[in-house]
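MarR family transcriptional regulator, pasting as requested.
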Amino acid sequence: MKTMEHKPNCLQLGFLLADTARILRRIIDKRAKTIGMSRAQWAVLSRISRNEGLRQVDLAGEMEMEPISVARIIDKLQAAGLVERRPDPSDRRAYRLHLLPAAAPVLEQVRAIGASVLDPALAHLKPEQLEALIATIGDLRANLLNIETENVGSSETNSAA
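C-alpha cells follow.
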C-alpha cells in the first residue's frame, strides 16, 4: 500500500482553513444582522455589485446554491429596493440582476463591517506577509479547482465505462 508523505502539519491545514472560515462566517452573521441583512443577502448583494447584469441562474451556480434559494434572497433584496430583475434579452425565461441606487450605501456598510472584522484580524501582518498569504491561498484555491475539475472528468469517464 502506497503511503502519502506530507509536510509537517499539512493535514491540519484543511481543518484550520475550515475552522477559520466558520469563525469568520459566525462573526459576519452577527454583524450583518446589525444592518438588517443575512450573510446570504450580503453575499448576493456583493456578488451582484462585482458583476452587474449577472443572470440569476448563473449567480446560483457561482454561489453553489439552489436557484430557488437565490430567488428567495433576490425577492427580499428586491422588496428592500436594493436589486431589480430585468428580463434577459436573449432568454425570455431568465433575468439579469442589477443594483438600484439604494444599494450603494448598504454596500458601503457591508464593506465597513468587513473591514472592521478583517483589519484587526490581519493587523499583525506586514504588508508583504499579507500579500504572500493572499497569493498562497489563491494558489491553493486554484490547485483545488484543478483537482475538482480533474476528478469530475475522471468520474464521468469511469461511469461511462
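Note for the archive: The first helix runs from residue 10 to 33.
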